Amino acid sequence: MEFLYQKLKEYHQKNIYPFHMPGHKRNEDAVEFQPKLTEDITEIDGFDYLHRPTGILQESQAAAAELYQAEETYYCVNGSTGALLAAIAACTAPGGAILMARNCHQSVYHGVCLSGVENYYVYPELLSSYDIHGAVMPEKVEAALSAHPRVQAVVITSPTYDGVVSSVGEIAEIVHRRGVPLIVDEAHGAHFPFHDYFPHSALEQGADVVVHSLHKTLPALTQTALLHVQGKLADRERLRRYMGMYQTSSPSYLLMGSIDSCIRNLQRSGKAFFEKYVERLEGLRGRLSGLEYIQLAGEDLYQNKAVWDLDRSKLLLRVRTEGAGGHQLYELLLKKYGLQMEMEAKTYVLGMTSPADTKDGYDRLCRALEDIEREWRVEGRALRKPEEESALNWQETVVLAKKVLSISDAMARPRMLVPFEQSEGCIAGEFLHLYPPGVPLAVPGEQITQKLLDTVAACRDAGLEVRGLAGECGEMMRVCSIGENS
Fold first, then answer.
1. Which of 178, 198, 254, 361 is most buried, most CB within 10 Å of its CB?
2. SS3 at position 50
3. What is the CATH number of the domain that holds 157?
């Protein structure tokens, strides 16, 4: 029998480089505060209380607000998930409605369920060459708000998991004309304000509530996040109340210490820290730009109208050769070269970088990809034709889904198991998603279509895990019982 703590210690001894979260990259030289057992405390004299701060935690949160140029900032030790749950609850009322991008993280759907509101969708563009979500177009938000005047708040994800940024400023102007707040899940963009190499932050562009995961792209422990608020459209008293509800009443001082350390380090030496990071990152991107079989997304995406901006800290590596895909590249990088990537998809692999990355780590990735490219060239592999590169057509899968029940209603109903392959026409009683990134392919309350069955089959054929299915082999689906007694 394996023990988790032992396995963690053993893993530390392996020479596997992390191109994944958390952003400290296990690099002790990049992190000042490295918690010890002797520093694990509870709410004792002199250390304040997160949910009613009047002392050191109040000062620490004020420092974070100043750093991010927010009017007010709250610490979250339940990740961006807790902050998003609180934001949705604070900005809506039971029986109300919310407009959300269909590519929001699953936590936003959970927030909708818990808050008892009706949800309407705005669909992001599709970048078919990579089969990833593009930006949310401002005109689509305006049309959706006109069609659904009861909407009390709007929530979008920018940047996406893959680094695509929407025009938050234009969307904010449209939303504000309706007198409702704009919530931006900027979990993957906590690093944006610290160098002009990266896109403008959602706060700078006028969003009312912005959520950041420090642990994703900055040197902080997993589960650390920030919720920022500005303007008068979001009720701050409700935000504080729900932040207390969606976090433990005994918040970890080790996690809060990690947040404080990250903020203070950025205040003191953030400029030099990021100058070095950008120099190394640009060198890595330049070195990889000449690859043919493995294409690093960059300028090709900038030329697409569905991309307002792009976070170049993300390494989106598309496999363009026949006979291989994201799963094969992911496995090669891990098993042959000791490089753990963040995510595999059907046609690409995603790597995450941060200021804590080392030159050696970048060199290892470049050498590995160049080596793989040479091997594929020697094998005489052909490039995949452009018309063959579109993978799953996520957009068609979710647009065709018909919402029969609200998420809250569907989650409250009795559920039963049916063979997934025979579930067409049934009402989904569970989320289906690839994790990461955690964007649902199916949402409770939606009618299951043949397109969904085909998409899930394509994902599984490509070696990807679809979460939410039941049974030992994922052969069953939980569906809603809609009989007379349900």
1. 198
2. coil
3. 3.40.640.10
The whole-number pLDDT of residue 484 equals 45
- DSSP string across 331-391: HHHHHTT-EEESEE-SSEEEEE--TT--HHHHHHHHHHHHHHHHHHHHTTPPBPPGGG---
Q: What is the CATH number of the domain that holds 472?
A: 3.90.100.10
For residue 483, what pLDDT is reported?
57
Candidates 143, 101, 150; CA nearest to 121 is: 101
pTM for the full predicted model: 0.96
Residue 2 lies in a domain: no
Say which residues have a Cβ less than 8 Å from residue 483's Cβ, sequence separation at least 6.
none
Q: What is the spatial distance between Cα 267 and Cα 67, in angstroms, rounded to a whole number?
A: 7
283/157 same-domain check: no
Report the distance separating Cα 221 and Cα 191, nearest Å: 15
Q: What are the phi and psi torsion angles at 145 (to 5°)?
A: -70, -35
| Same domain? 352 vs 209 | no
Of 123, 53, 110, nearest in space to 79 by CA: 110
Residue 214 is predicted with a pLDDT of 98
**Cis ω on the peptide bond leading into residue 355 (within 30° of 0)?**
no
State the first-to-last Cα distance of the chain, in angstroms, to the nearest integer.
Answer: 43
Structural domains in the chain (count): 3
| Same domain flag for 223 and 86 | yes
Give the β-pairing of 348-352 and 339-341: unpaired
Q: Which domain holds residue 234?
A: 28-264
Beta strands 476-480 and 118-122 are: unpaired
